[in-house]
Amino acid sequence: MRFRDLSGKEMIDITKGNRLGILGQTDLEIDEKTGKIESIIVPNYKWFGVKKGEHEAKIRWSEIETIGDDMVIIKPIR
């Protein structure tokens, strides 16, 4: 699967039922040695794409439960 295939999918935290964002508005953290994705970084936005603050959510790749047609289901490890 390519990143462009993930673009536009909504991310949902399955434990809280929260919407975390859309994968077109995120950055990837990639291990330079292996080239593998380590985490997805979701910026904290408010209305109309204006950045709300410096806080951002970091979702480890291992926390992704399922990638569906429209959504990515996340189960955070706490």
Explain what the structure shows:
The protein is mostly beta strands and 78 residues long. The chain is 5% helix and 51% strand. The chain contains one helix and seven strands, in the order H-E-E-E-E-E-E-E. The chain has a four-stranded mixed β-sheet, with no helix packed on it. Strands 3-4-5 form a three-stranded antiparallel β-sheet, with no helix packed on it. It is globular and about 35 Å long. The N and C termini lie far apart (27 Å). The relative contact order is 0.26. The model has no long low-confidence stretch (mean pLDDT 82).
- Compute the gyration radius: what is it? 12 Å
Number of strands: 7
Mean pLDDT: 82
Fraction of residues in H or I helices: under 10%
Structural class comes to: mainly beta
Strands of the widest sheet, in order across it, are 2-1-7-6
3D shape? globular
The low-confidence parts are none
Q: What is the count of DSSP helices, taking H or I runs of 4+ residues?
A: 1
Beta-strand fraction estimate: over 45%
For the biggest sheet, the summary is:
4 strands, mixed
Separation of termini?
Answer: 27 Å
Order of helices and strands: HEEEEEEE
Question: How is the topology of this model organized?
Answer:
Elements: H1 3-6, E1 10-13, E2 18-22, E3 27-30, E4 37-45, E5 51-60, E6 64-67, E7 71-74
Parallel strand pairs: 1-7
Antiparallel strand pairs: 1-2, 3-4, 4-5, 6-7
